[in-house]
Amino acid sequence: xxxxxxxxxxxxxxxxxxxxxxxxxxxxxxxxxxxxxxxxxxxxxxxxxxxxxxxxxxxxxxxxxxxxxxxxxxxxxxxxxxxxxxxxxxxxxxxxxxxxxxxxxxxxxxxxxxxxxxxxxxxxxxxxxxxxxxxxxxxxxxxxxxxxxxxxxxxxxxxxxxxxxxxxxxxxxxxxxxxxxxxxxxxxxxxxxxxxxxxxxxxxxxxxxxxxxxxxxxxxxxxxxxxxxxxxxxxxxxxxxxxxxxxxxxxxxxxxxxxxxxxxxxxxxxxxxxxxxxxxxxxxxxxxxxxxxxxxxxxxxxxxxxxxxxxxxxxxxxxxxxxxxxxxxxxxxxxxxxx
Length: 339
Known about the structure:
- This protein is an all-alpha fold and about 350 residues long.
- The protein has helices at about 1-25, 30-50, 55-65, 65-80, 90-105, 110-135, 140-155, 165-175, 185-205, 205-215, 215-220, 225-255, 265-275, 285-305, 310-339; strands at about 160, 175-180, 180-185, 255.
- The protein has a two-stranded antiparallel ribbon with strand order 1-4. It has a two-stranded antiparallel ribbon with strand order 2-3.
- The longest helix is centred in the C-terminal third of the chain and has 28 residues, at about 310-339.
- The radius of gyration is 22 Å and the shape is globular.
């Protein structure tokens, strides 16, 4: 009898420990799910397509989606606070075509690139001010920023502007190869952006404030955290990333075009959500967003390999979004029960 009681206590203790472990690490569940999906897709592609070379394909995905990865980093900060930024695609187009025009007019690349980043930051700050001080919903405020940036892009030029500046084109044309893998400076920029953002969110007071604001803004205020500064900063960060993405995309395509980035804001949000960031805020990781970008890029690659229409990319991404929204709801419900 005593032995049976001890076994029950041991089982109960194990169950409690398991629930505590799950409660502490439940925010990582969507990230692990994204990793599993990525691994399964890679394994399936390597089995189905004999000429699927992992090192070259993954290197190509990073090369083709470096701008999307930079955008996803900025969007992660915004969504972590419970906001949204629909302006990133338009800001990317505006800074890209303005950069192309400035370089064509003889402006040094060392001046043009910082200027684009500052312009992106200014538009992000405008959105943040509308959200924080004028109580405009993030959806509407960022929509205003989107219309503004897209209109300014058309003011710069109605046509594509080719880039001949070797300094900017070097970012994409140069490749560093090793063991069958390769990476370009644009890819390095994207990965460094991810690393810096991950460090800020994990190890700085600002990062902890971002999570606190997204988790419960009123509680964050009562705790004396700089909520206003944090909410303004995340939109500025998103704008900086959009400006940087405009430079990366211009280097990648070799031209600026006012219609670049149409719908990219939705692709960015999809990648962030697939990577495990809750749309309600307070939970998510930049690393997860990077995985989401690779999942998105791999979907496009597999569909291209199969010869199917690219419309299937949207369908597949939509299905994954549905799956991850359901997973997020389960996480929110579990978190509420654990309290």
